[in-house]
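User: Hey, my collaborator sent me this sequence without any context and asked if I could get a structure. I don't really work with proteins. Can you help?
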Amino acid sequence: QVQLVESGGGLVQPGGSLRLSCAASGSIWSINVWGWFRQAPGKRRDLVATITPSGSINYKDSVRGRFTISRDNAKNTVALQMNSLKPEDTAVYYCHAATMYSTVYWGQGTPVTVSS
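Assistant: No problem. I've predicted the 3D structure and written it out in structure-token form, which is a compact way to encode the shape of the chain:
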């Protein structure tokens, strides 16, 4: 079992920044992909960024160059630094972990609102 707890969401003006953090506990050794997804009202949940234990990173095209995913192995956390935020980035952001056994875990979600 893996438990994921997100923090760091909130309200920010367009052009601003937020940093999301995901704290993991449990069978962390089994995770082979970490990620952040987001779900806007009335839309499906979409991938934002992923990172593997070896450091391989992938981004959704619309956030590349503005968002940065990172992992702190010592603290068992995964962060998403979001810069130059736009109103279309408004969504609930979810931390995600997939294990080598094809089990998927989700955090509870943290809301991000970009508005003036």
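In plain terms: The chain has no helices and eleven strands. You can pass these tokens on to your collaborator as they are.
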